[in-house]
Amino acid sequence: MNQYNEIPTLQYMGSKTRIISHICEPIIKNKSIKTVVDLFAGTGSIGYALKAHKNIISNDLEYYAYIINHAILNGCDFSVTDEISFWNAVEQQSASLQAKVCTAVTTENKFFIDTVDYKQYQLFCEKTPSVFMPQSDDPRLKEILDLVDQVTPGKAPTVETPCLFLTYYANAYFGIAQCCQIDAIRSIIGQIEDERTRYVLLTMLMSVMSASASTTTHFAQYLKVKSKATCNNLIGKRKINIIESCKSLLAEYRQAGLCTADGKAPSVCYNLDFSNCLDSISLNNETLVYADPPYFKEHYSRYYHVLNTVCLYDYPAMAMNPQTHELSIGRYKEDRSVSDFGKKAKALGAFDTLITKCSNAGAWLMISYSDNSIVDISDIQALAEKRYDVLIEKVELSHSKQGRSSISKVDEYIFI
């Protein structure tokens, strides 16, 4: 049984939950370590597990991950009275949005039955307009098209109604009513002055989005209606009430203490490239850097671009596919961040930079990495042994590939 604190956030690639004891136990036992730098923090499972034992500094290149770590490490002061007012405002905003596209929402609800004709729902989804496809000949979707006509990606919208998700992702990553609910929640979060409260509520929203999206386990591409089975699967996801799910999750967060300020000095969180982060903090022999860098060329900014978008809520410009010179199928935003650890030509050099900077500062270093990744385990070991006395622990894991049923064995190596 896991003895370390956990908190529900995203369904996440590369999550350390399954090996958390292998990572945390030696860190906690080493009493000379006062501060842990979670350098590639992701959803923050390691920092959250260790925060009762060590000072935590968190960093991640992705903005959504920065928000999550700030939220779960620092919490906020959000009273029950404030929460009631928040949900009242959300409900009003959601009702207003759904009224603006009431024909589309009503039509969507009619499809949400067991006896649905999947080909009719497929056609309805394919004809749903968006900034990626700003036209539709389906009169039931004209209200959405009218909003789409007032949105230019990369520029501030001319419509006052918050409608980013409705005009970018309706019947793609989420259903129509779900997009109204997401836009409503996000717009009311944006009205809250306290940063820490905004971050906790954004984490709540992202976590529910992750669990209810029309995807497998990430946002690289959305699922499409191709058969009766895929139709039923999508309808099951799109029937989820985002607002009610958020209320339930926020109750869990409140129980975990995230809605009550504890009076402690907040953990410092960064949103930087790993090298810039190491240059920004004071490393010494009482500091351990825990590094869990990206393993593959598929970048997190691609897999979780929708989460960055909900945090920034900036009506982003759209990325083009460099091969086809057409808009990307996954509806990605422009200028996504890319880590050197995800580039085969640069990954080993990035490891050298990481190891050298930590060693030069006299800091402890722990690295976790998979044996089927860009850099060979032996090459990392060779670099580390030039600078450190190295202990290696191998942990065998079962890995499912992006929602597929097949299971493969993967060895996770922890360099201490």
The helix/strand order is HEHEHHHHHHHHHHEHEHHHEHEE
Largest sheet: 7 strands, mixed
Report how far the terminal alpha carbons are from each other: 23 Å
Radius of gyration: 22 Å
General shape: globular
What share of the residues does DSSP label as strand, in percent? 5-15%
Structural class: alpha/beta
Name the strands of the widest sheet in spatial order: 3-2-1-4-5-7-6
Number of strands: 7
**Total of DSSP H or I helical runs spanning 4+ residues:** 17
State the low-pLDDT regions, or none: 399-408
Mean pLDDT: 89
**Number of domain units:** 2
Residues in helices, as a percent range: 40-55%
Summarize the structure.
This protein folds into 2 domains: 17-74 and 266-295 and 339-415, Vaccinia Virus protein VP39 (Rossmann fold, 3-Layer(aba) Sandwich), CATH 3.40.50; 80-255, no CATH class. Helix content is 43%, strand content 10%. Strands 3-2-1-4-5-7-6 form a 7-stranded mixed beta sheet, sandwiched between helices.
Describe this structure in words.
- GO terms for molecular function: site-specific DNA-methyltransferase (adenine-specific) activity.
- InterPro entries: MeTrfase_D12 (IPR012327), SAM-dependent_MTases_sf (IPR029063).
- Keywords: Methyltransferase, S-adenosyl-L-methionine, Transferase.
- The chain is an alpha/beta fold and 416 residues long.
- The chain folds into two domains: 17-74 and 266-295 and 339-415, Vaccinia Virus protein VP39 (Rossmann fold); 80-255, no CATH class.
- Helix content is 43%, strand content 10%.
- It has 17 helices and seven strands.
- It has helices at residues 20-29, 45-50, 63-74, 80-100, 102-111, 118-126, 142-148, 164-168, 176-189, 195-212, 228-238, 242-255, 274-280, 300-303, 305-312, 347-360, 377-385; strands at 35-38, 55-59, 268-270, 287-291, 364-370, 392-400, 407-415.
- It has a seven-stranded mixed sheet with strand order 3-2-1-4-5-7-6, sandwiched between helices.
- Helix 2 links the parallel strand 1 and strand 2.
- The longest helix has 21 residues, at 80-100.
- The radius of gyration is 22 Å and the shape is globular.
- It starts with 19 loop residues before the first helix and ends with a strand.
